Structure formats: C-alpha cells, structure tokens
Amino acid sequence: MGQYQKMDENLARRKFLIQTAVIMGAVTAPVFPTLASIRLENKDLTIKEVIEILIKDIPGAPFERTVDQLRSGNMDQKVTGIVTTMFPTLDVIEQTAKIGANLIVAHETLYYNHQDDTDWLEEDEVFQLKKALIEKNQIAIWRFHDYWHRRRPDGIAEGNLKKLGWEKYYNPESPRLLNLPQPQPLRDILAHIKQQFEIPQVRLVGDLDQVCKSIYLAFGAIDSRMIIAAIQEYQPDLILSGETREWETVERVRDGRLLGKNTALMILGHELSEARGMEFAAEWIQEKIPNIKVSYIASGNPFQFV
After folding, report:
1. Does domain 32-150+275-296 have CATH number 3.40.1390.30?
2. What is the pTM of this model?
3. Which residue numbers belong to the known binding site for a divalent metal cation?
4. How many Å apart are CA 138 and CA 128, to the nearest integer?
5. Consecutive 10-residue runs of the chain (306 residues): their mean pLDDT?
6. Can you say which residues are annotated as belonging to the binding site?
7. Does the structural domain 155-268 have CATH classification 3.40.50.2020?
8. CA dist 126 to 89, 166, 296, Å?
9. Which residue ranges does the chain devote to CATH 3.40.1390.30?
C-alpha cells in the first residue's frame, strides 16, 4: 500500500503546483522559469524556420495533409532550445521549461487522439491544466510523426536499429524486413532487445527456443491488415511490434502457430518501441541546427508491471 499511497501523494502535489501556477500567475513567484529569464546565444531562428530546416530533405515535403502541425505556440516565436520526446507529457513539459527550452518536437499526440482534436475535451480538467501549463511557460509543441517516418531511412527505425547494433542489416529495398546474418534463439533476441531498450517485460506469442533469422519491423502502431499481409508475403520468423489490436494480429499469429507456422510476435509497447527513434532525432536535429541546444527527454513507459 505504501507505494500506491506515495504515487497518489505525488499526483496530488503535481496537481496543486500546476493549479497554483496557473491561478496565481504573476502574483507569486513562478513555479517554472519564464522565457524572460532565459539568455541563450544564437537565439535567432523562429519555429517556422526550424521546421523548414527539418523537413527540407524529407521526400515529398511539405505534405498537403499531415498530423505534423504546430499544436501550441506560434510560428514567429524565437526558439531558445529544442526538446525531442515520444509523448509530450506533463513531466516532459515541466522539464522543458526548467532547462530553458521552448520547442518540443514530439512524435505522438499532445491531446490523447491522433488528430489532436480538442473540442470534446473542453470540460476535461486534465486538458485544461495541461493547456494552461503550456501557455504559461510559452512552450511550442510541434508534432514530428509523418515526416520522421517518411524520412529514408525511417527515422524511428534507424534510431532503433542503431541502438540494437543492427543498422548494418538494414535493406532499403525491403525496409521493414531485417535478416540477421545467423539464426538466433528467440530467447537471445528477446534478452538483447530488453537490455538495449531498457524494457522490463514484453508480451510474446511464440516459443523462446525457436530460432529466428528474419524479423519484420512494426514499431509503434501498424495496421493489422498490413502486418498480416507481410506475414503472407515474407513469412518472417518474428514480428517486432509496438502495439497491435489483440483480436487481429495476435489471433492471426496464434492460429498460424497452431497450424505449424513459425512466425512469432513480440509486443514491446508503443512508447518503448519508438523512443530510441526520438532519442536519435535529437542527434539528427542537432546536426542540422548546431547553434541551438537540442535535448532528448524520455516520456517513459506509462505502465507498471504488477
């Protein structure tokens, strides 16, 4: 009970701090540093200019339709520092303000749905507090999802493969299919992924003793029809997945195995399956914009394993 009591106390404390910062405004000392207190050199690029630099070499950019929009702030805002992350959580927003950055480049949604629609959230207390915290600290949040995946190689995949030491096995002609040089027991592959990605636990449909050589990469959330079509075409030994609907890909893999097929399914979790790609994004952005500090702040695994 002590662990959960402490979690409740921490949540209550955070809510109190945010509400105090929002309600009291300039009357009390701010909980977070304001932009007026930030003094960084080379603060001469606007958000619009930063975005133009980042999408310049992405095939087909700019896209006519994309979820990669500025979700807070304005395009003329000067950039004092950049943070990359998977999910722009309250923790990430707080830490961004504390280090004097004002642009978060987030892979996933700010407001709990893919299109970041907010009309249905107007009466939601958490939405209101999150929005107020962003506005108080003048944090701009730009989504970097479609462009990062459209990059060649896919930015998420490259970051993950670099972390796993598998980048040399990448084949641009078949970017989602990875072939290891030698077959390995699934047990060893699992241990390697858990260690490199710092994942405490995964979900598996398969046999830990089976050997694997071909791996289909389905990081994040991939449509089940696409994955099942890949099973039919490539017959991979392993599907490395972020998340998937349990009544679709999971059941196709289970039925296949009951019929003697070899494909196994490893589910890492959405955040953990793409986080290394956003860590890599910080390095990639820093090379393109050397005069503005770029940091990676992990949003972290939202789940406890109990």
Report:
1. yes
2. 0.84
3. 107, 270, 274
4. 15
5. 48 56 42 38 81 96 96 96 98 97 97 92 95 97 98 97 97 96 97 95 96 97 95 97 95 97 96 97 98 97 88
6. 107, 270, 274
7. no
8. 11, 40, 24
9. 32-150+275-296, 155-268
